[in-house]
Amino acid sequence: MIDIAILGLGTVGGGVADVIRENQNEIRHVLGDGVNVKYILDIRDLPGVVNDINIIVNDPDVKIICETMGGKEPAYTYSKLALEHGISVCTSNKELVDAHGVELSRTAREHKCSYLFEASVGGGIPLLRTIREACGHERVSRIAGILNGTCNYILTNMKAGKDFTDALKEAQEKGFAERNPAADVEGHDTARKIAILASLVSGKKFSYEQVTCEGITKITRYDFADAERRNMSIKLLGVYDAEKSSVNVSPYLVPSTSPLYAVSDVFNGVMISGNMLGDIMLYGRGAGKLPTASAVVSDVIECAKTLGTTIDTGFADLEPAEVGKVPGIPAGQKFRFLEA
Ligand code: HSE
Question: Model's pTM, two decimal places?
């Protein structure tokens, strides 16, 4: 049995426990061993939950931690401490990966363990592993992605005539939205995700602060009617352009000929353009308890298969990126247009 701990019993942390319980046979099949949740840590006093990280990091049985707390602290301090004890960390925390992912990856390498963050971008889509393993040899010229399930859910519902506030409330009830949903609707969550993707494919560290960012709060129902007349939809996209070395988040007009046009509700779609591969699109549930937890568990299995070594995500070697200017929106237009 591989003993693990879950830090943070929120939506995703609870999902990790559920996935491990429900799919224990499948995990055993791919890993050749079972996974046991030995500890759950939460800052709240809940039955069966520990509050002291030292109990976990000082237990030699614990080999892997799932950090599903969100936010920078105490997630940063706890992750760092675990890695310094040689315990691998699998996280869904995009804010932490964006802010401290390079440092934590270096700490993991020094202590022969891993820092993995599949669930931080694209929810349940096996996105980072695909980029890392199947596209590592490609020269990526562009990534354009619908990367926030909450915004896509809101935009899909607004297009169908629903009010912004009602659609946001539904997204919150379904467990898609961030604790502070401004991070979703103002585009900051997408900014963190596109910065992580740009860093993975470019070999340079792009950070959230370098992303030119606009959210979905200024979109009206008249904009949807106008887009529909022109055979387009409005989507919040994160875009990385390798030639310009630029990253931006903005509502885009997406033509019906693009595969991103039909990506609706909580789904995410990420188009990656490689010099040999051409365009591919990865698609799936971008938020929600079980899809996101499934991505965390996929990292747990990868760590469990490679105990005592470090899985190289490339993050430990990143140097800061020099970021290029994002062209403005053409005069007389309200939105950017997604070129094929
Ligand atoms: N609030 C995020 C979203 C959660 O809606 O996409 C998944 O990162």
Answer: 0.98
